[in-house]
Amino acid sequence: MAATDIRSYITPRGFERLRAELRQLQSEERPKVVEVVSWAAGNGDRSENGDYIYGKKRLREIDRRMRFLSKRLEAARVVDPAKQTRRDQVFFGATVTYANAADEETTVKIVGLDESGLEPGLISLASPVARALMKAYEGDVVEVRTPNGPMPLEVVAINYEEGGPG
Description:
Strand order of the largest sheet: 5-4-3-7-6
Order of helices and strands: HEHHEEEEHEE
Radius of gyration: 21 Å
Largest sheet: 5 strands, mixed
CATH superfamily of the largest domain: Transcription elongation factor, GreA/GreB, C-terminal domain
Structural class: alpha/beta
Shape: elongated
């Protein structure tokens, strides 16, 4: 899969989060800021009007975020992990439990770039750990490249059901 493909993968839950954020910005936050800016503009000198200056700045930030979200949603390739047919192997959307060399277990869910980091345990498909885990089976030992050298990880469990991290 090409790098451009990786950037557009998203789970249905992640897609809904982005869409909800866009709707909230459009229907609630932006109209409130527009109202404040209109009120502040009516107060005269705009060059020293803090409400006006801050409001205009906030409008630019909101508009920039709305453009970003619109583009991301338009380019999104929604992949539902629950529909994965090869459940014995790690692919996008899998919840994976792995053990490191010290036998410490970690559970992560492999999600799209726009979803990673939103909650603990959600890691990007492009992250080194996710890339190492891709296509592995339970019991496989994969190697993650770290700044301190290669680190072996053993795949303990693979799950595609809702729940788990995220």
